[in-house]
User: What shape does this take?
Amino acid sequence: MAGIIILIVLGIVLFVIEFMLVPGVTVAGIGGLILTVLGVYRAFDNYGTTTGTWVLIGTVILSVFVIAFSLRARTWKKFMLNVNVEGSVGEEIIRDGIKKGDSGEALTRLAPMGKIMIKGKVREARSIEGYIDEHKQIEVVSVEGTVIKVRKTV
Assistant: This one.
């Protein structure tokens, strides 16, 4: 009987691994199904219909309980990363004071995106007037969130 219990418990553990850790249908899920069915089958085969039925009912109840317990948020709180990420993209653009009318130089070819040097800082920018070759003078046309739009100065 210990072998049957071990098979069923291992099957349920593999089901939990399948549901919680490994996405999709994998070896864990298939192995869990095989071990659980094998354990119930062996209970029917070795101990008869009455004991096999009780083992099947117990397996279903235990499976539902373990899966419900595993899905609770507090169960997985111990495994979660509890770090708050603060900050946002583009704060340095505002902090550096890049604004319309500022001038700089294209460090790479803007086709239409590329790197520019403006106020001593390297930033990514978008050309609004086609391509701009490297080492050409540029002017900021607008700053919209994190996007710096530039054009070539004549």
In short: Helices lie at 2-20, 27-71, 73-76, 91-96. The beta strands are 103-106, 113-118, 121-127, 137-144, 147-152. The mean pLDDT is 84. The first helix runs from residue 2 to 20.
